[in-house]
Design goal:
Layout: H1 8-24, H2 31-43, H3 45-72, H4 81-110, E1 113-114, E2 122-124, E3 130-133, E4 138-143, E5 148-160, E6 169-172, E7 176-180, E8 184-189, E9 193-200, E10 202-207, E11 215-218, E12 221-226, E13 231-236, H5 239-242, E14 249-256, H6 257-265, E15 271-274, H7 277-280, E16 283-289, H8 293-304, E17 307-311, E18 314-318
Parallel strand pairs: 5-6, 15-18
Antiparallel strand pairs: 1-4, 2-3, 3-5, 4-5, 5-8, 6-7, 7-10, 8-9, 9-12, 10-11, 12-13, 14-16, 17-18
Helix pairs in contact: 1-3, 2-3, 3-4
Length: about 325
């Protein structure tokens, strides 16, 4: 498990180190800035170690992106339809993979607790609250004398909050802030939406976008907020369904295949991609084990008559 705790100073040092790597690549960097960098390096031996680590991580990402550019230019020979789908999809996912690598280096430097593929760690915070992360998730902690804030940097987490009237407990995502009102709740964020499910008491949700009114979500309710449209849908749910992921299961009712594949991907060390947009929009209902990748894909093959192609660590799913 990639689990560790960083102090606020360590997180700032890591952010500064990554920033200096990019600034030092500027061929027109002024001498005053170079002098500032030298002073920063001499200020603390830890700064030097952080800079070396950041340069290595970001350097690896740069190398990967260069490699992908060559692959994108690789000609594709005429082949049967199924094979052409696989080859073109592999090239697309290699390109996307370089972006993932580039982002994950800074993620490791920002996060206090991370979970790897197929890991679902449960940790106790300094105030006694408990958090369980889904696979491939990350959080950062910002606890002060006035507030307790957890930033969900990626993925999904379930929170059981220790009450403290003097220090509100909030979870922030890219699009919203969820404040506990003495409660247990689940938060999941993806590139397209934010989901909050409450299993005890209630939460207050405030949105970062202007013009969206805050709302209160009660026990047994789930909210789906579309990040692009800026709209929210509230529906009834139960703890067994909302927290099925803690048992390695996924329960869906009329959800797009893209959502299901995203959940299966959390537990798979390779990459799973969908061959085309029409396939991604296919609707899925049912309950199955997402930790067993082949079994989950078998379920989808039977339910939707999908085809899968496996080449090394890459699986392509298409209609």
């Amino acid at each position: 498990m990639q689990s560790r705790r960083l102090t606020r100073d360590q997180r700032k040092r890591n952010r500064d180190a990554a920033d200096w790597v990019f600034r030092n690549r500027d061929p027109d960097q002024p001498e005053t800035e170079r002098a500032e960098f030298r002073r920063w390096m001499e200020l603390d031996p830890e700064n030097c170690r952080a800079y070396t680590a950041a340069r290595r991580i970001l350097g690896e990402a740069r190398t990967a992106i260069r490699a992908d550019a060559a692959l994108r230019d690789m000609p594709i020979e005429t082949a049967p339809r199924g094979r052409k789908v696989v080859i073109s999809s592999i090239i697309a996912i290699i390109s996307a993979g370089s972006l993932f690598i580039a982002q994950d280096g800074p993620m490791r430097m920002r996060a206090d607790v991370m979970s790897g593929t197929n890991e679902m760690p449960e940790v106790t915070l300094e105030d006694g609250s408990r958090v369980q992360l889904n696979a491939s998730s990350a959080i950062a902690l910002e606890f002060t004398k006035d507030r307790r804030t957890v930033r969900l940097l990626r993925g999904q987490a379930f929170f059981q909050v220790t009450p403290d009237e003097k220090r509100p407990f909030s979870v922030s995502t890219e699009d919203a802030r969820i404040t506990a009102l003495g409660t247990a709740f689940d938060v999941r964020q993806s590139a397209t939406d934010t989901r909050v499910a409450v299993t005890e008491h209630s939460v207050r949700i405030e949105f970062n976008a202007h013009g969206i009114l805050p709302l209160k979500l009660g026990e047994g309710e789930e909210m789906l907020h579309s990040n692009e449209a800026g709209t929210s849908t509230i529906r009834k749910t139960d703890a067994a369904t909302a927290l099925a992921w803690r048992r390695g299961q996924l329960t869906v009712d009329n959800m797009p295949l893209s959502y299901v594949i995203e959940e299966i991907q959390r537990h798979f060390q390779g990459r799973i991609i969908i061959g085309n947009e029409a396939t991604a929009k296919r609707i899925v209902s049912g309950t199955f084990f997402v930790k067993d990748t082949l079994s989950a894909l078998d379920f989808l093959h039977t339910a939707l008559n999908l085809r899968t192609y496996k080449i090394g660590p890459i699986i392509v799913v298409t209609s």
